[in-house]
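User: Hi! I'm working on a homework problem where we have to compare a predicted structure to a textbook description. Could you give me the structure for the chain below?
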Amino acid sequence: MKINKILKLLKTFNYSINIQRDYLDEEKINFYMPTYKVIHLINKYIDNITKNGKKSFILSGAYGTGKSFLISLLLHLLNSETNIRKIDTFISKSRKVYSETETLIDEIKNQRQLVVFAEDNYNDFKQAITMGIIKTAKLKNISLNIPTVFRIIIEKIKNWEKNHIDLIKKAEIYLKKENINLKILKKEEAFLYL
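Assistant: Happy to help. Predicted C-alpha cells:
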C-alpha cells in the first residue's frame, strides 16, 4: 500500500507562520488541528483580556511548538473585522476537544478588538507601538490625535513656514544636503519610513 493512500499532506501545511500576514487567513485557521491545551490557553487569554483587564502576556516555548499559530488564532478570534463564522471548520474541531468552545465563541463576539502591530523599524518600544497605532488607525479610517514627536515636528515646521521664513530656508538647505524633501517630510506617514 502506498503511503499517499494513507496520509494526505494538507495544502496549508507550513513550517512557519507570519502572524501579521496569516492571522486573517481563514483557510489556514480552518485547517489548524486544535488541541485541548491550545483551546484552553486561548480561553485563558481571552478571559484575562476581556474580564480581568490584563492585556500583556509572555508566551514562551521551543521552536516549532505552535506559538505563532496560537497568537494568529487568538488575533483572528479577537479582531473586530473578522467573521468568526468563516472559521466554522476550526470551531467544529475545537468542540470535539474542548467542551466550552461555544461559550468561548459567544464571549468573543462581544469583546472584539482592534489588532495593532508594533512597527518594527524603531528602536524605542513605545515609539514602535505608537506608530503601529497610528498606522492601523489610518488604514481603518479612525481619526486619532496622538501627540507624537513626529506631529510636534510637523507643527513646528508649519509654524516656521508662517512666522519664520528664514528658519525654513535654512532647514530646506540642510535637508537638501541630506536628500530629504521638506514637503514629503511634512506628511506624517513619511515618518513611518525614516
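For your comparison, note the following. The radius of gyration is 23 Å. Residues 9-109 form one domain. Good luck with the assignment!
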